[in-house]
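Students often ask what a holo structure prediction actually looks like on paper. The answer is less mysterious than it sounds. You provide the chain, you provide the ligand, and the output is a string of discrete structure tokens encoding the 3D arrangement of the protein together with zinc ion.
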Amino acid sequence: METAENTINLNFFTAADAAEIFGPNFLDAEVCRQWILKRLHPAGAFCPCCGSSLAGRQATRFWQDRPVCCTECGKTFTARTGTILAGKNLTYQEIILIAYLMARGDSNSEIAEIIGCNRETIRLWRRQIGDVACQEI
Ligand SMILES: [Zn+2]
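The corresponding structure tokens follow.
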């Protein structure tokens, strides 16, 4: 039986990756969502429960991060299910901005103030996507 822990996709991105692509177009929520979801699901859209490939309307909903009901196993999920983003309330824009600010060298306190969340949230994100060189900031 699969658990949430062993289905987490570790093929995500680093703060350096986000800094490399960051620019004015990343002020657009759609651009942020597409970039992150493509990084989370480089092999395409699949049901995280049974592994069925998604097509048509299901694939469209998956890439929009809207709930999808698998026609094979009947489970409902989103593109975040079973990934590092499962259960996280941050928007895609906030995630990109956090990564960019980390790569720029901002401290957890500075980033938390800009995003409007607490430092612990930023500390946890730094552990997941932060650059090793700036983890102790
Ligand atoms: Zn399924």
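Residues 92-104 form the longest helix (13 residues).
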